[in-house]
Each structure stands twice: as C-alpha cells, then as structure tokens.
Amino acid sequence: MAASLPPFPRFVFTVLEPLSLVAGFAGSVYDPAWFVAQQIPQGKPVAASENSILMAHQLGNMYLAMCFVGLALFRTTSEARVIRSYLVALLLADAGHVGFTWYGMGTDRFMDVSGWNAMAWGNLGATLIARLARQLFLAFTRIAYLSGMFGPDRHVPATITIQQKSK
C-alpha cells in the first residue's frame, strides 16, 4: 500500500501524478482536433483526420488507464518490491516520452523556442514544457525514492481477512 512510501513520494505518486494523468485524459478527449493539431508547432496547424482523432481518444484512454492502474497498485500492494518495479517501469517510460516528443518535433523545432507561434506557445507552455517538467520532476522523485533518499520504506504488515461461514 502507499502507506509504505515516505510522505513526499506518496503524495507525488498517489495525488499529483494521478491528477496530471486525468488532465491529459481531459485535454485529449475534450478537444481531440486541437490536441492533435498542437502537437508540433507550425505556421498552419494540420487539420486532424479521423485517424488522428481516434488516436487522441485512445491516448486519452491510456492516460486514464495509467491513472487507474497506479491508484490500484498503490492501494492494494504492501510489497515494496512491486512498487519499486512499477516505478522503474515508469522511469523508463518517462525517458521514452521525452525522447519521442523530441524525435517527433525534430531538434530544430524542439530547440527553436523563438519559432513557436501563439498556439504552439499555449500548447507547448501548458503541455510540452509542463509535461517535460512533470516528467523530469517525476523521474527525479522516482530516482530519489529508488535510491533511498527519502529513507527506508515503512514495514506495513499484510492483513488477512478471514470470513466466517454463516450457518
């Protein structure tokens, strides 16, 4: 259970991260055409196709699924080993997320902040920069937790519920 985590990582992984995943879900399903068009800064955003809108909805569903999986894991396991394995998997996914964002935008657009238009600034400021900051913040918190910077995990005894049969 999350109770085995030190307070700071517990707050980050059971409150902040789920809220950010719900925000990603909401943005991608509320206005998927905008979500798609704003992924790469350009003078005239490309119109979203039916395929890209479907993918935006699917991505939103994955954000929500990640939220549910994380909350379910933190609420149901008292095994520090399981939590650590989950956080290592997310840390690898963080690196992939940042890398694929950079790859998709291309180095020139990724680094050329002065070339971003107003819509791109809104999207990149609210989404990409916040996402990168979020990913780096989460990655730092994962590394700090996994390396023991927050102290040892608390030992939370497993509970067993025995149900009596009624006659």
From TrEMBL:
Top-rank taxon, per record: Eukaryota
Entry annotated with the keyword Signal: yes
Q: Where is the DUF7704 domain?
A: 3-152
Q: What's a Pfam family this protein contains? A: DUF7704
Q: Looking at the keywords, is Nucleotidyltransferase present?
A: no
Query: Per the UniProt record, which residue ranges are transmembrane?
Result: 53-74, 86-105
Q: Whose protein is this, by species?
A: Trichoderma ghanense
The beginning of the lineage is: Eukaryota, Fungi, Dikarya, Ascomycota, Pezizomycotina
Q: What is this protein called?
A: DUF7704 domain-containing protein
Alphabetical list of InterPro entries matching this protein: DUF7704 (IPR056121)
Q: Which PANTHER family match?
A: CHROMOSOME 1, WHOLE GENOME SHOTGUN SEQUENCE, EXPERA DOMAIN-CONTAINING PROTEIN
Q: Where is the signal peptide?
A: 1-24
Q: Which UniProt keywords apply?
A: Membrane, Signal, Transmembrane, Transmembrane helix
